[in-house]
Amino acid sequence: MQHNECLNCGTTIVGKYCSNCGQKTDTHRITFKHFLAHEMLHGVWHLEKGILFTVKEALTRPGYAALDYIAGKRFRYYNMFYLMLLVLALILFAAHHTESKEAFDEAVLDDDDNYQKLVQFIDTYIKPILFTLVPLLAINSYVLYRRLKLNFLEHVIISGFTSLAMFVTALVAIAITVKYHPVTDFISDLLFWVMLLFPILAYYQVSASKYKFWGFAWRLVLFYLLLILEIISIISFFTIVFLL
Q1: How far apart are CA 9 and CA 155, in angstroms?
Q2: Per-residue b/e over 106-123, b at no fewer than 16 CB within 10 Å?
Q3: How far apart are CA 63 and CA 51, in angstroms?
Q4: Contacts of 176 by beta carbon, 8 Å cutoff, 6+ apart
Q5: Region for 26 from its dihedrals, namely left if φ exceeds 0, alpha if ψ lies in -120 to 50, beta otherwise
Q6: DSSP 8-state code for residue 25
Q7: If residue 89 lies in a helix (H) or strand (E), which one and from where to where?
Q8: Residue 162 to residue 200: CA distance in whole angstroms
């Protein structure tokens, strides 16, 4: 049913969508058939479409996708930070059902009460701990890739796409691990190494037009060194807090 005024905000309508709030002008009475065929299936399809597109872009062209997003081409993308939280939740679920989690618990959860507190803290706050990868990548790229002339939050977008690709790869690596199956273990280990290569891909795509090969190479080496030092510092801090 077409209306001359938006039923949501009352604005005069020209076209298929309200220019003020974006609601469709063609509304339907809610019936069981319409709810099942349109509201449910249509909504689920578009949700999956946005998620799958965002994951595909993050895995294949994280740097270019980030630049597109920064430039304002955002309609087709699902919110990457919500998506990262979803992927992290799936990683934790998968990790709690693998042999590696059981082996870790047996190796660490001994009679030392301090170790138990540290592991309990990590298990409780693993999401924000892993999420610190995003600002760490952003800080390093903001310092090293100044020719991009992007502000810090725009570097956060780049690190967000990069981190999403890393998290999705880690999820696949954990999910395919089968107990006592050497083939899946090999593929899983390979995927973890692939995961570490996404910053190279992302920042090459972002900065290839701004830096020559050696300029990109030394920045990349320094980028990883800084990231390693930052991660070691964070781990050391929590170790000192809980074990000393």
Answers
A1: 36
A2: eeeeeeeeebeebeeeee
A3: 18
A4: 184, 187, 188, 191
A5: beta
A6: S
A7: helix 80-95
A8: 9
Distance CA 88, CA 35 (A): 32
How far, CA to CA in Å, does 239 sit from each of 32, 137, 230, 235? 57, 22, 14, 6
**In this predicted structure, what is the pLDDT of residue 167?**
92
Stated pTM of the model:
0.74
C-beta of residue 50 within 8 angstroms of C-beta of residue 43: no
**What pLDDT does residue 74 have?**
83
Q: How many CB atoms lie within 10 A of CB 157?
A: 20
How high is the mean pLDDT in each 10-residue block of the chain (244 residues)?
A: 68 76 64 54 56 92 94 85 86 68 50 60 69 90 93 93 93 74 70 89 93 92 94 80 64
R_g of the chain computed on alpha carbons: 23
- pLDDT on residue 83: 87
d(CA 116, CA 17): 57
What is the distance between the alpha carbons of residues 221 and 200, in angstroms, rounded to a whole number?
Answer: 10
Using CA atoms of 43, 47, 49, 50 in order, give the dihedral in degrees to the nearest 10: 140
Dihedral sign of CA atoms 60, 66, 67, 69 in order = positive
**Residue 155: predicted pLDDT:** 94
**Alpha carbons within 13 A on the beta-carbon side of 123:** 14
